[in-house]
User: Fold this.
Amino acid sequence: MANICVICDREFFNPFDQRVYKEVKSMTKNGHNVEIITPHKNTENTKINEVLVHGIGTGGPFGLTALKILKKAIEKEYDLYYCHELDPLVYSWILKKITGKPVIWDCHEYLVPMKRELQGDFSALLTKVVINLAAPKTDHIITVDNTLAKQLRRFRPVTVIPNYPTIEDFPLPKIKMKRKLPNILYVGSLTEERGAQKMIKAYKIVKESIEADLTIVGGFYDSKLEKWAKDYDSKYNLNINWEGWIRYTDLAPYFSEADIGLCILQDSERYMKAIATKIFEYLIMGLPVVTSKGHMSDKLVRKDNFGISVDSSNENEIAQGIITILNQKSIQEIAENTMQFSRDKYVWERREEKISKIINKLV
Assistant:
């Protein structure tokens, strides 16, 4: 049994970081004592599933939050530091020098292209330099797919643990409630790069042909995009069900009430190489998927007849993909086959024991 400090790159609670949550549950299941340190709106402690979460207030001058996180991380004698994404990679380098304790780095994003997309070329270059300097100082790297693993293997040993959903948090309903209208579901962040505009415009086209609902679970990061989306919804009387951010543990009922899932990421280096977590969540709940042609998810969906891949830049093609699935007479049969196959393969519980093996080896 080990005392483990999990350090987050960003706010753990809002939006809820489901990968951190799943890993912490796996650690505690195997008898480890775990505490989480996360940037937070206030400096306060709380608990989630009996795990202590140290919220570190993000107010004040640049660098103060990082110093407070480091201070909190060395206040208690931990056996291992489990660090997520970029900033905690830097913290881990410092913590290892101070404490001599082993470090696991969990990298679940293509960080360099992500920084280039969001903050420009200089930020991407700086991120690359940080990874090159700090990643070799870790003891083990965990990541989400084989492509990213190949990039990181030159630094340290790498283990791939895909970001699959948990059966525990996505139980099948005993009876699936039948809605009057077919329900299209989108779960996740709402940005242009994730196809928010294309999705909403495509839904308008769908409604011109068939009656259907659109439920969106997630939030905006861009106030201009949010205003456009709400205005467009109102202008064309789309009556979109805007649910906002929902905690990971409360998502299952929304999947149970849906007939089809959308994941129409736009073409970019960041998104084309990986399969979005929401794809697997849709599949284990038996939802056929409309996803982006040419992406990693395209191959998955086409290979096992899990849905349709479309040109994600073309709202007409997205709309036609949705209509095609909703008009299929065998949609219920497809849903049952999808669910049965996915629950045997694409679930967190099939991979979680790897975490414990790595921890036991290091401590």
About this structure: The radius of gyration is 21 Å. The longest helix spans residues 331-345. The chain is about 45% helix and 20% strand.
